[in-house]
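User: Hey, quick favor. My workstation is busy. Could you predict this chain's structure for me?
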Amino acid sequence: MRIHLIGAGKMGLPMGKHLVAAGHDVTVDDLSEGRLQEAAAHGMAVAKGHAGIEAAEAILSSLPHDEALWATAQAVARHARTDAVYVDTSTVSPAISVRVAEQLHERRIAYLRSTLSGNNLMAEAAQLTVLASGPKDAYERVLPLMRTWGSSQYWLGEGEEARLMKLVVNLMIAQTSAMLAESLTLGVKGGLRWEDMWTVLTNSAVASPIVKSKSAQLAQRDFTPTFSVLQMIKDVNLILGEAQRLSVPLPQTALTLQALQAAVANGDADADYAAVIRCAERAAGIR
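Assistant: No problem, here it is.
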């Protein structure tokens, strides 16, 4: 299949690599020349502007925020073939996604929301979970592409279900970081060894996949970002915005946002979102 990838960042680049490895013809566009060079080194042809969109059977995007999705969708609406499928994997608000759906529907371009659960390391290892919604026939058409990204794909409905499901998942991920911050700080202040706590946590009833995935780094107190504090703040704001729209109180999530903002204030904006642990330690007087 001829695929055009828009956005070759931490998630987009490995997804493109897996598509190339599966034998697909992949072109790529990105604002960063460095990322374009890296994509080209992995077998993707650089196609800036609308040339790649016009030739593609499937257009794939991995974008940072609502504004980028809206701009990209306008280009897709203007230049994509009417039999093309537009697959967006970004974490954005359901509200902007509704606007994109309306615009692409007028052009008879199939629009699939294919949000992803997993970080950049899981993207590299083809261990992502795909949460998809949109036209069922479009989903089935591009399902072989999404299977190159991981073993789990879920079609959730015809509309914005995938956008909401991603926010539900990320709410639990954000809350897990806040839970770890308080529990680990309690243990350290009481004299437990950091390494011992991680050994027990990852072999206990609370050993969820996210706890296990964070343990390899955090057991060494490595806060190199797989997903930064600022990125998590963006997602938590999306979660709280949707909660406001639906009149759902989320008091714990609001407190987690405060913990993330404290991490920014303490110089950890670009650290892994688990840096909320360091904020909890500081508040407890742990150096």
